[in-house]
Design goal:
It is a single chain. The protein has two helices and 13 strands; from the N terminus they run αβαββββββββββββ. By secondary structure, it is mainly beta. The strands form five sheets. It has a four-stranded mixed beta sheet with strand order 6-5-8-11, with no helix packed on it. It has a three-stranded mixed beta sheet with strand order 7-13-12, with no helix packed on it. A hairpin with a 2-residue loop joins strand 3 and strand 4. The N terminus is likely disordered.
Length: 197
């Protein structure tokens, strides 16, 4: 039962006719989460600024436009091309939510390259977005075997001279050390830092 009306559902392949219900559709957009709080405070007369990250995407532009219309200062809303703006969707019937979903707007996947050699990494400092499944193609340009090790993420990629292998990094925000775990190589400078924002 849905609000006192019986609704029949049929499995695919059922040859009985399906009931048709009239549908009235209305779509609207409004700031969600902390932006909603900011909009409410502005409506009460407060001077409000928001601080956060958005991606260079349509959802980020729509959020900025909505905040401007509501009198919320967005000068501290930073656009980062390695982020995507979260979009929340709700499907409701008779004023009650039926389905809710949160989805990040699609963005280009993060793809990086790194070389290992005697005795270093190029580059030795990497920055990726959090929980982005960034792909790093690691190539051994040296004459000895090396590896790419990130203990905190459980990653060890062994590489023979001339060999390339991909590494997928899906990490929470933080700073992670990477290094070559071949005996003595880290002490000779084969180490670096991965920053996840």
């Amino acid at each position: 039962m849905l609000h006192g009306k019986r609704v029949a559902a049929f499995l695919a392949g059922d040859d009985r006719p399906a009931h048709r219900l009239p549908v009235r559709s209305t779509e609207f957009q409004a700031p969600g989460g902390s932006s909603n709080v900011a909009a409410n405070l502005a409506a009460l007369g407060a001077e409000v600024s928001v601080v956060g990250l958005v991606g260079p995407d349509r959802a980020g532009a729509e959020l900025r436009d909505a905040l401007a219309r509501l009198g919320v200062d967005d000068q501290y809303l930073v656009e980062d091309d390695q982020c995507s703006t979260l979009r929340k969707s709700r499907l409701s019937a008779n004023g009650q939510y039926i389905v809710r979903g949160n989805a990040a707007v699609e963005q280009n996947p993060v793809q990086l390259t790194m070389s290992v050699f005697e005795f270093g990494f190029g580059p030795s400092q990497l920055t990726i977005p959090a929980m982005s499944a960034a792909s790093i193609l690691v190539t051994n340009e040296g004459v000895a075997a090396h590896n790419f090790t990130v203990d905190a993420l459980g990653i060890v990629i062994d590489l023979e001279p001339g060999e390339s292998k991909p590494a997928t990094l899906n990490a929470a925000s933080g700073t992670y050390d990477f290094y070559c775990s071949m005996p003595g190589h880290r002490d000779l400078g084969m180490q670096g830092t991965l920053t996840v924002l």
